[in-house]
Specification:
- With 147 residues, the chain is an alpha/beta fold.
- The protein has a single domain (15-145), classed as Glutaredoxin (3-Layer(aba) Sandwich).
- It has 6 helices and 5 strands, in the order H-E-H-E-H-H-E-H-E-E-H.
- The chain has helices at 2-11, 23-33, 48-57, 61-70, 88-101, 131-145, and strands at 19-20, 36-42, 71-77, 109-113, 119-124.
């Protein structure tokens, strides 16, 4: 068994990040663990920058390390295809998040929030050329609000 654990660490060194299902769970976890909430609005099946952000940025080892230490992750997804439609309760939660934090419907929109839900920083869109700047911006927010 230990061999399989070691093998999985060597073959799959990047951790799998856990995205919380709703704001109340994220807030509780953020308070309990002294973390910020990273809220991402995405259109997982139609928004190309959203898809790229999830594939390129959220899987980046630097981001994942930062997220493990400092963020509670919350994704408000707004898929369009019937195949990816959310159940009604999940959609209602995402609609409430959009009403509170993204009433103009920008995608992707990423926000860093305090544990009580106050917006500390936000970024509109995603460009892979700006990945290092986004990481640096996030580090600055962490330094200001968590240290």
């Amino acid at each position: 068994m230990k061999f399989l654990q070691l093998l999985s660490i060597v073959l799959f060194p990047v951790s799998i990040l856990t995205w919380q299902p709703d704001m109340q769970t994220a807030k509780k976890k953020a308070v309990d663990e002294h973390k910020l909430i990273l809220l991402n609005f995405s259109g997982s099946d139609w928004c190309i920058p959203c898809i790229r952000m999830h594939q390129e940025f959220f899987t980046d080892e630097q981001f994942q390390s930062m997220a493990d230490a400092s963020f509670v992750l919350l994704n408000a997804d707004f898929p369009r295809t019937k195949k990816k439609q959310l159940e009604k309760t999940a959609q209602a939660k995402n609609d409430a998040l959009a009403a509170a934090y993204n009433n103009t419907g920008k995608f992707p929109l990423t926000l860093l929030l305090s544990a009580d839900g106050k917006v500390l920083q936000q970024w509109e869109g995603y460009n892979s050329q700006d990945k290092e700047k986004l990481l640096a911006d996030m580090r600055q927010v962490i330094a200001k609000y968590l240290r």
